[in-house]
Design brief:
- There is one protein chain.
- The protein is α+β, with helices and mostly antiparallel strands and 285 residues long.
- 22% of the residues lie in helices and 37% in strands.
- The chain folds into 2 domains: 123 residues, Rossmann fold (3-Layer(aba) Sandwich), CATH 3.40.50.10330; 135 residues, Tumour Suppressor Smad4 (Sandwich).
- Helix 3 links the parallel strand 3 and strand 4.
- It is elongated.
- The two termini are 33 Å apart.
Length: 285
């Protein structure tokens, strides 16, 4: 179904001066079209409160993939769709380039956009049966070694059945979206973004299983920590120290990430091919 926003907000990553300037221009452009669209930093607390209480029906984020991740963590619990405009280097998560956002904004207001839903992961940190925190992830949850270079020992259980133990730098639990992020760099397969599977990819496995495993839809993963010097990181955020015998429980989240898209679903493969071609030619990303 087509999607036409009535109450958008334009945001940007504040450490990227170009993005903040572009966000102001985008807001003014929408204003010229008769659409009131306030703008500001993705970290502005008043703006974030307004997103959470449902004041907006779409959030535009100017930046790169990291900015989209920040927007997703904010928007997903409130069911607010995200439209990214790529001002960064790669932009796997973003369909619109900095040079053509006006054209896409016009298409948006003409009803030529649609909403794509992508699965998120929920990660919960458990110690002696007590929950110490939980987070949502668009890309991946990583349980891995901290500052020391020694590998860590981990045991992965899937749906209450032991899968295997790892001695490795870490273990990635990825969504299909994250299959083009850290999991891809670690040698994992690329999954279509509409899949609701969990992908397990070990990092530098030593004398243990070194292949990626794609789990069936609806699976839950329990990662047991069996060594010190282990941390938890969700979507590349600041690591959380883990202790021996801690558990990280990973399941599909109750909420989904919603992205505003244009054209047919084949945009994903065109985007992947473009970025891989650029990389193979040694062009800047």
């Amino acid at each position: 179904m087509s999607f036409i926003p009535q109450r958008p907000v334009v945001t940007a990553y504040p450490k990227m001066a170009e993005a903040m300037s572009e966000a102001e221009v985008m807001s003014a452009y929408l204003q010229e079209k008769g659409i009131e669209a306030p703008w500001g930093s993705i970290y502005d607390e008043e703006l974030r409160k307004r997103v959470r209480r449902g004041d907006f029906d779409m959030l535009i984020i100017a930046g790169g993939d990291g900015s989209v991740l920040r927007a997703c963590h904010l928007c997903a619990p409130s069911n607010v769709p995200i439209l990214g405009v790529n001002l960064g280097r790669i932009g796997f998560l973003i369909q619109i380039d900095r040079n053509d956002w006006r054209m896409h904004f016009d298409k948006l207001l003409n009803g030529e956009a649609w909403i794509e839903n992508r699965m998120l992961l929920k990660a919960e940190h458990l110690r002696a049966g007590e929950s110490l925190g939980n987070w949502i992830a668009l890309n991946e949850v990583v349980v891995g070694r901290g500052q020391n270079l020694r590998p860590v020992r981990l045991t992965a259980t899937v749906d209450n059945h032991r899968l295997t133990s790892y001695m490795a730098d870490g273990l990635i639990a990825s969504t299909a979206t994250g299959s083009t992020a850290y999991a891809l760099a670690a040698g994992g397969p690329i999954l279509p973004p509409e899949l609701r599977n969990i992908l397990l990819v070990p990092l530098a496995a030593h004398l243990s299983v070194d292949r990626a495993v794609v789990l069936s839809e609806g699976s839950s993963v329990n990662i047991e920590v069996q060594s010190e010097n282990t941390v938890l990181s969700v979507d590349g955020q600041s690591p959380i120290n883990l202790m021996e015998d801690d558990h990280v429980l990973i399941t599909a989240a109750d909420v989904t990430a919603q992205f505003v898209r244009f054209g047919d679903a084949g945009y994903f493969y065109r985007n992947i091919t473009l970025h891989m071609k650029e990389n193979s030619l040694g062009l800047p990303r």
